[in-house]
Automatic annotation (TrEMBL):
All residue ranges annotated as the GGDEF domain in the record: 549-681
Residue ranges occupied by any EAL domain in the UniProt entry: 690-944
Ranges that cross the membrane: 46-66, 78-96, 116-134, 146-166, 186-205, 212-231
Alphabetical list of NCBIfam families matching this protein: GGDEF, sensory_box
Domain PAC: start-end pairs: 467-521
Taxonomy of the source species: Bacteria, Pseudomonadati, Pseudomonadota, Betaproteobacteria, Burkholderiales
Protein name (database record): PAS domain S-box-containing protein/diguanylate cyclase (GGDEF)-like protein
Length: 963
């Protein structure tokens, strides 16, 4: 069982003592009977001494309690004292009735003594049980004490009457010659049980906070129980057990007296001493001097914890008046305070300024008149409180109040019910109310309805927990102007830490938010279309992919959009982009994201979409874009190429998905535009190869990987070689032969076509010069010019320089241009062609008939030759359409003064048809594949020999005919 700490010291002592007594009891009980233990010599005097001592202790117990009964002791204390007063009286009668004592009213006998003994023991046991059972209250009155004492005395008197005058009514407890009766022994065991019950109850009390000396009463109950045990063991009234029983009883009474004395005398005095010590400590800890003065202002006592608060040391002040130690003005104030206290009993609030060791300090006097005994002079208690810091704080608060009032930021102070108690001028300026209109009102008068209710709920949840809250509120001024405020509200606590007010700092951030919104718009949205840019698109992607990994990414590129800018101007192009963005956005779902990536490229994110859903969206978008658009007064038809990448199969990150979707879009471009394609691994491999080729091509010229081959151009009239077309070839050490159809577009895309084109032109002219120097007849070297090359400024000058460097006459060079190059910017093209033709350089149109030619421009360009594309030649012997086209080209060229050449001639039938229609020149596998320079040289020389043989044969035939 746990003992409460408040009982711990006394309980420890009681338990140790009871343990020692119990050990003694066991030893005496276990030892065999010794000679002399059945009859103790001189037992009667010993018995009288022990009983007298017990009676005296019981009387002292009563006397101690009864002497302080006017202190309104607890019921239980008076019950204990009165009960054991009765026990003492019964013990006194027991002592007088003992065998061998003089006659006490009736003759003394063992049975008479036992009856008084049992009565005393029963009263003591019942008293202890009752005291332990009843609650320990503090409401006993004088009337209760007298009534209780009278009741106990009446009970004692009744017991005396019964034992002295009617003993026959009582059962036998002792039989001479036989000893104690069973009744007597049983009675002793009952008494023992009662004492143990009292001990158990008191032990339970020791588990609670201390209200009385339960440990002392517990020891008394335990000692009495052990005493009763001895009285069940004796066989003779003078044996050792009887003597020990009386001894234990005296010890029990001693513990009882000690418990009573501690509770009624020692404990109050200890509490009083503790209170005095605490009071003294409090007085010593007072930071303010406490003085005692008489009517004349003389110092009778001086107490202070800080001598620096006194004008002079305390021992010097004693016996001197305030006039003797203070300046006259301050002394007058002090005497006025004493006079006020004499009249009203107290005086407060008077302030004096004194020069103390710490410097000049201000003190506030609090004077109280003391209650004095008759005949004593009037005295006053004066507390001199140093208020220097308070005055300084008040001054600082005054300055702070002025600063808050004049602050450019609004300040608001409310009570706990959010009623406005203070506002500064900045608040009034912002809200446009007057102070009278807002004081006492709730700040909700400024609510605009634009702030979500959840913001207010969160604000009050924080403030009710004593925590500050910071956020933004959209409010409305008196005139209706809406503004956004950044608000910091925090609880204001008093010195005890209790929240008393709320203080709000506000700042109008309307312009700042508008500026931030503009910055947000500029940094996250396309300025032309208002669509998200790539940065914001990334945020949309991260959110969407966190919800569902399935997503389709569309790369939408407009077909031939540059033609619109070139023909109608950039303003018209911007209007077209704006119209296209609106069409795309209106035909996407709300959860889809559309971004203008750059130029005429758009990107759409389709969350939760698979291939079939993405295909449906693409088909719809192509249909929408195909509808005519009216821009700058002109009707424009637009198509688009769309590449599709599906997450997560085609990539888990946005960059990978965009790259793959763009790759798929370029495949659509290659296949003819105006469609959509899904990204495939084959495209990825193609893109990887294209990237590798593009990087390798940058070093191809320097590494000698490029070379030219030459395809003979043959005059149909007589079969002679009149020219060669220089064709570029690339042999890579790793990939081997790389097709021109594969690397030429790469060179055009990355700008390498310009230096490569110059190398081709220079190499071809050098080769022609070498052939001429080797004795070959004059021929025309045909060199292709790409659109990028033709667009380069200074092209005519560059060609002229190369002709001069190689020594090739201008008429030996023929530059081949495609229709697209010539018609892209006709005016500029005509100017460059004029400059080239002025130098004597021949010009031809390659792949004629595959584009959209303008005959008027063709006439202006003054082209020397038209090349019939091999797509018309391939089936020219069987396809009527190809025959008609080829025939038309030849006739048109002849009418415009141009010659024609057909490429891709591979069969005799093709050659015969072209010859019959009047085509001037041909080239193709029917005559020769493209040849290396040495082989071309041999081919030309063989052709010259054939032509010479034909000439000789013709000459012989002519001579024979003449003969």
């Amino acid at each position: 069982m746990l003992i409460h700490p408040s009982h711990q010291p006394a309980a420890s002592q009681s338990l140790r003592a009871m343990g020692a007594l119990f050990v003694l009891l066991l030893l005496v009980s276990l030892l065999p009977s010794l000679p002399g233990t059945r009859g103790v010599a001189h037992y009667l005097p010993l018995h009288m001494a022990l009983e007298t001592l017990a009676i005296v202790v019981a009387a002292l117990t009563f006397g101690v309690v009864w002497s302080v009964r006017h202190e309104r002791l607890p019921h239980n204390a008076l019950l204990l004292a009165c009960g054991f007063m009765g026990v003492g009286l019964l013990d006194f009668s027991h002592m007088l009735s003992y065998d061998g004592m003089p006659t006490f009213i009736t003759p003394s006998s063992p049975e008479k003594a036992i009856n008084f003994w049992l009565a005393a023991r029963l009263l003591g046991a019942l008293t202890l049980v009752t005291v332990a059972w009843l609650p320990w209250s503090t409401s006993a009155s004088r009337r209760y004490a007298l009534g209780l004492l009278a009741t106990v005395l009446a009970v004692v008197a009744a017991v005396h009457g019964l034992i002295l005058y009617a003993p026959d009514l009582l059962p036998r407890t002792f039989v001479p010659g036989q000893g104690l009766t069973p009744l007597k022994i049983t009675f002793e065991y009952v008494l023992m049980a009662l004492y143990l019950v009292a001990a158990a109850l008191l032990l339970w009390h020791m588990r609670q906070e201390r209200r009385f000396n339960a440990a002392g009463l517990f020891a008394a109950a335990c000692a009495m129980a052990q005493s009763e045990f001895f009285f069940t063991r004796y066989t003779g009234v003078t044996d050792i057990y009887n003597l020990l029983g009386h001894f234990y009883k005296v010890l029990a009474y001693t513990y009882l007296y000690r418990a009573t004395f501690v509770e009624t005398v020692q404990q109050p005095y200890a509490l009083l001493h503790s209170s005095q010590m605490q009071l003294q400590a409090t007085l010593d800890a007072l930071p303010d001097p406490m003085l005692e003065l008489d009517d004349e202002g003389r110092h009778l006592d001086v107490r202070t914890g800080h001598t620096s608060s006194l004008v002079t040391p305390s021992n010097v002040m004693l016996g001197k008046t305030v006039q003797e130690i203070m300046p006259a003005a301050d002394a007058a104030i002090a005497m006025a305070a004493l006079a006020e206290a004499r009249q009203t009993g107290f005086s407060r609030g008077r302030v004096i300024a004194l020069q103390v060791p710490d410097g000049k300090r201000w003190f506030e006097l609090s004077v109280a008149r003391k209650n004095t005994l008759p005949g004593q002079s009037q005295r006053y208690v004066v507390i001199s409180r140093d208020i220097t810091q308070r005055l300084e704080s008040n001054e600082a608060m005054r300055k702070l109040s002025q600063a808050v009032s004049q602050s450019p930021l609004p300040f608001v102070i409310t009570d706990l019910q959010a009623r406005i108690e203070f506002v500064n001028d900045a608040f009034l300026h912002t809200c446009e109310y007057t102070a009278a209109e807002v004081l006492g009102q709730n700040p909700r008068i400024l609510q605009s309805g634009k702030t979500p209710p959840a913001v207010y709920r969160n604000m009050w949840a924080q403030l009710c927990q004593g925590k500050p809250w910071q956020g933004e509120l959209t409010n409305r001024s008196k005139s209706g102007r809406e503004f956004t405020e950044s608000v910091l509200i925090y609880p204001v606590r008093n010195t005890e830490g209790v929240v008393t007010n709320y203080l709000a700092h506000k700042e109008d951030v309307t312009e700042r938010k508008q500026a931030a919104a503009r910055i947000q718009q500029l940094s996250h949205y396309d300025q032309l279309t208002g669509l998200p840019n790539r940065t914001l698109l990334g945020k949309h992607f991260q959110y969407a992919i966190s919800q569902d990994s399935a997503m389709a990414v569309l790369w939408i590129d407009l077909d031939r959009f540059k033609d619109v800018n070139d023909s109608l101007g950039h303003n018209a192009g911007d209007l077209l982009l704006l119209e296209i963005s609106q069409r795309l956005r209106s035909h996407l779902q709300n959860h889809d994201a559309l971004s203008r990536h750059s130029g005429d490229d758009f990107v759409a994110l389709l969350p939760h979409s698979d291939q079939s859903q993405a295909a449906k969206v693409c088909a719809k978008l192509l249909e929408v874009l195909a509808r005519p658009m009216l821009v700058a007064g002109q009707e424009i038809f637009v198509t688009a190429s769309i590449g599709i990448a599906i997450a997560p199969n085609d990539g888990e990150h946005l960059d990978a998905l965009l790259k793959n979707a763009e790759t798929a879009m370029y495949r659509v471009k290659e296949e003819g535009r105006n469609g959509y394609r899904f990204f495939t691994s084959e495209m990825q491999a193609h893109s990887a190869r294209a990237l590798a080729l593009s990087n390798a091509l940058k070093q191809a010229v320097h590494r000698g990987e490029l070379h030219l081959v030459y395809q003979p151009q043959v005059l149909l009239r007589d079969g002679s070689v009149v020219g060669a077309e220089a064709l570029l070839r690339w042999t890579h050490p790793q990939w081997g032969f790389v097709s021109p159809a594969e690397f030429i577009p790469l060179a055009e895309a990355n700008g390498l076509i310009v230096p490569i084109g110059e190398w081709v032109l220079h190499t071809a002219l050098c080769q022609l010069r070498a052939w001429l120097d080797a004795g070959l007849p004059m021929m025309t070297m045909a060199v292709n010019l790409s659109a990028v090359q033709f667009a380069q400024p200074g092209l005519p000058d560059m060609v002229g320089r190369m002709l001069a460097q190689t020594g090739v006459p201008p008429e030996g060079l023929e530059l081949e241009l495609t229709e697209a190059v010539a018609m892209k910017e006709p005016e500029i093209a005509a100017q460059k062609m004029q400059e080239l033709r002025a130098q004597g350089i021949r010009l031809s149109i390659d792949d004629f008939g595959t584009g959209y030619s303008s005959l008027s421009y063709l006439k202006r360009f003054k082209i020397n030759k038209l090349k019939i594309d091999q797509s018309f030649v391939r089936d020219i012997s069987t396809d009527p359409d190809d025959q008609a086209i080829a025939t038309a080209i030849v006739q048109m060229a002849r009418s415009l003064g141009m010659s024609t050449i057909a490429e891709g001639v591979e069969t005799a039938e093709q050659l015969a048809f072209l010859h019959a229609r009047g085509c001037d020149e041909v080239q193709g596998y029917h005559f020769s594949r493209p040849l290396l320079p040495a082989l071309f040289d041999s081919f030309v020389r063989d052709n010259l020999e054939q032509q010479a043989a034909k000439a000789r044969q013709a000459h012989q035939e002519a001579e024979e005919f003449a003969i």
